[in-house]
Fold these 2 entries.
Entry 1:
Amino acid sequence: MKTILTGIRSNSVLTLGNYLGALLPMVRLANEHSDDMNVNIFVPDLHSIISDVDGDLQENIIRTIKYYLAAGLKINKNVHIYRQSRVPAHSQLCWILNCVATMGEMSRMTQYKEKSEGRESCNVGIFDYPVLMAADILLYSADYIPLGEDQFQHIELTRNLATRFNNKFGAEIFTVPVKTAEQVKFMGVDEGIRIRDLLNPEKKMSKSTAAENSKIMLNDEPSKAAKKIMSATTDSLGKIKYDMWGQPGISNLLQIEALVNDIPLHEVVTKWAGETRYGELKKQVAASVSNMLTDFQEKLAEISDEEVYELLEIGEKYANEVANAKLAEAEKAFGLR
Ligand code: ATP
Ligand code: MG
């Protein structure tokens, strides 16, 4: 049986961008495949601590799992939810793979270069986390790892480490995940969704942006979120058209309207074509976002901590079994057993 693996860092409350661009597509993919594939959803809490955490990490972890459930994740026997730190094999395999990875290839990781740039000192975790990612993937023989484009290089690293390890020991110990091009095909997207910053629509919406009105958080009061949409930056062209380059603010609103209501973008674009009143569009999008948040927050409130802990107990038992078996194979190969 093939395996899909995915996780989202839970360092803070998520934005509407994280929800529409990462969480919701993942939940749809999981629901589509969980009858005949393993779907591993893990909370990468060891990855969280390479940078600062907003609020309480434990609370963030539990909330992130609730997000998946509130977004409609269907649970069946093939869906496994676990915390990375509760499966020690991740750290253990990471060390073994550290002895396979080279300084040269690790130094070429763009994410490391970007994240360490301009910092006086940078923790070793920021340098090494792609190896931990490789362990996250290889322990479960994952084939598909739906990820943002910024992480593709790490998939290639994982493929290289797995292949090098297998060659060194002349055995197929690790399953090499599929190439990034095939990952993209599997995800069924031609281009990634990028929700824009409401005040500076040339940029993407990010949870770390300071300006409150630039982003919608999933825990925003629906009426407050509506106000943020009403005050979104547009342009002075006076026509409603989807053109991310020429009219990013308006295009972003059309995109949000489509995704929040699960309507194809072209239908929304056609509906508004020829209209000139930006205020009307904003009112409509504000209502859609506010309804979506009301609904989402209601669902979230219905999910108890107990329910999450029960899922984790089952998921972590499974994850430890699978991961420990794979770790043992790797340890044997190196003569550690
Ligand atoms: P930060 O500002 O801390 O980088 P972020 O909002 O960019 O936060 P990440 O933790 O970097 O969020 O990314 C989490 C997931 O959300 C990734 O899969 C990323 O591709 C996706 N994502 C982030 N921002 C957006 C956005 N504006 N639109 C769509 N998807 C997004
Ligand atoms: Mg980011």
Entry 2:
Amino acid sequence: MSPATTAVRAPAIALARLTKTYPGGIRALDDVSLTVAPGTFLAVMGPSGSGKSTLMHCAAGLDTPTSGSVRVDGTEIAGLGEARCTELRRERVGFVFQAYSLIPSLSIGDNITLPLRLAGRRPDRRWIGELTERVGLAGRLDHRPAELSGGQQQRAAVVRALAARPAVVFADEPTGALDLRSAHEVLELLRGLVDELGQTVVMVTHDPAAAARAHRALVMADGRVVETLDRPTAPRLADRLVMLGER
Ligand code: ADP
């Protein structure tokens, strides 16, 4: 076999012995180690205050851990300077938020390319065209966000997150503001991007039905990963969350 075929891709995310302690001694993360292979759809669940946001923010280079290592696509980010970290985030990480975070005065097309343009990069028109086609927004690029449904806005936010071909997309409660049907569409879209394009997606969610669309689900409690479920189902996840709530 040629070296190209034997080359092993670095994990999209590798966290080693990550801790985050806030003043007053709160351990938001307590010795978390975790590897996310490229092309994985990972859901992160757990009760409020269990550390999900802190984990995502540290893994995405938005927050600095107290100790431990964070590698994104093979690059160590713990200890990178602020400027390099911002650069790496722009190049290698995409974000989808619950509230879409589209700029109301810009067209959908300009919203999608804004992060790239802010980073001084030329948008790959062909790639963005493929993505907008895929999410059913090709005819909507001239519209303002308010002219679209919530589900369409979130699909535009997914295209924006993927425009720079990031190593990993972090989605923070991406279906939290959507009705059931739109939520289902956005989850199917994320799952399809993982299964068909090999995109890596890490999604924080409270919803067991949403997490059940992932390949793997982590359950957090008190800053630790207390359970990992492969091919999770909504009933099993709901069961685990109820048990944690009753401790
Ligand atoms: P989750 O996303 O699961 O709700 P978080 O990661 O937001 O949990 O929080 C984990 C723990 O860290 C909680 O106990 C929370 O109160 C604490 N925490 C989060 N952010 C801060 C902060 N900026 N200052 C102090 N404590 C914080």
